Amino acid sequence: MELRQLEYFVAVAHERSFTLAARRLHVVQSAVSAAIAALERDLRVTLFERSAQRVVLTEAGTAFLPEALAVMDAVQGARDVVDELGAGMRGSVRVGLLPGLGLIDLPAAAGEFRRRYPNVELQLRVDAEGSAGVIVALRNGDIDVGFLGIAAGSVPRELTAWELLRVPQVLAVPVGHRLARRRSVTLADLADEAFVDFPPGFGTRTMIDQTFEAAGIGRHVVVEALGIENGVEFVRHGVGLGILPGYAVADQKAIRVVAITGESFQWSLYMATLKKRKPTAALRALLGLVSTHLRHPSGTEPGADVHQQN
To answer: Phi and psi for 191 in degrees, rounded to 5?
Structure first.
């Protein structure tokens, strides 16, 4: 087994195409195909299902991918040691973002990162499927690190996560709604109300759905908003109720905040990586910068000193 074969395997797994992988690697497609075929012979398994329409990982390929990534990370770690003594940090960091993530000044963090480490390629991408999509991208090796907005303690076991912030949520009720003058409500009071929420796959949506289902209460979501600010606007215009971060609705005159008895719907903002992948020097540098560019709006709480979730 050669390092070049692993590099080609990871490229095909990411691109889902031998042609696109070859372009990414700046080699001819036949070289990629030959390297993958040799790797499959060496491992005595088929790593990809190939057809004219698509290339997908087999079960063996899916299991092999995190191991290949770990080897690549170890090689990058060795290069980092040398680079730090010579020309400076190199490499790349691919980051998975959540739509409408306003709790971090990402432009400032990214700009400072680029100035400090000009030889490191920083790639930022928003995952429209929310935390669930970020988790899949981490598992597939499509990104190196991702942000998750999920219930505290619900980080999948195969991930290492650093808690950045804890964010309590409130029931946001448009002025004029029958519940707007109430100080508190129960979950039962919300049965069959129209709700503004995020699409399935978003961590907060999952948490809220599970809470209502456990209580045996139906919930009707009429709007699936992309981002917190977008959700606030729908509530402000009277489209439905929302269970949203308290900081996001605190200054909204057209919205009333009503407590839900016995429920806080608090979630945590994490940065996460795959446990089997050793963070490179570039990734560690990014983690440090993000922690200095957190926004702490009223109603949020700091994470446990950016602790590691095992």
So the answer is: -60, 130
What's the mean pLDDT in 41-51?
89
Query: Within 10 A of 119 (CB to CB), how many other CB atoms are there?
Result: 12
Question: Cα-flanking dihedrals φ and ψ of residue 231, to 5°?
Answer: -65, -40
Cβ within 8 Å of residue 75, ≥6 positions away: 3
Contacts of 143 (CB under 8 A, 6+ apart): 94, 95, 96, 125, 134, 137
**How far apart (Å, rounded) are the C-alpha atoms in residues 182 and 186?**
11
| Joined tokens for residue 91 | 């490499």
Confidence (pTM): 0.70
pLDDT in tens, 182-228: 999 999 999 989 999 999 888 899 999 999 999 999 899 999 998 88
**Phi, psi at 222, each rounded to 5°:** -100, -20
Q: Choose among 236, 149, 153: nearest CA to 198.
A: 149
Per-residue model confidence as pLDDT tens digits over 101-159: 778 888 999 999 999 888 888 999 998 888 999 999 998 888 999 999 998 888 999 99
Which has the closest alpha carbon to 58: 41, 44, 40, 46?
46
95 Cβ contact partners less than 8 Å away, ≥ 6 residues apart: 122, 123, 124, 125, 143, 144, 145, 146, 147, 286
Bridge partner residues of 49 (DSSP): 56
Secondary structure of residue 202 in the 3-state scheme: coil
For the record, the structure tokens of 148 come out as 């998750």
Strand partners, 82: none
Hey, how many other C-beta atoms are within 10 angstroms of the C-beta on 260? 18
Query: How far is the C-alpha of 138 from the C-alpha of 245, rounded, in Å?
Result: 26
Q: How far is CA 39 from the centre of its chain?
A: 31
Q: Rounded to 5, what percent of the chain is helix, strand, coil?
A: 40, 25, 35
Amino acid identity for residue 261 in this structure: T
The residues that bridge with 243 in the sheet, in sequence order, are 171
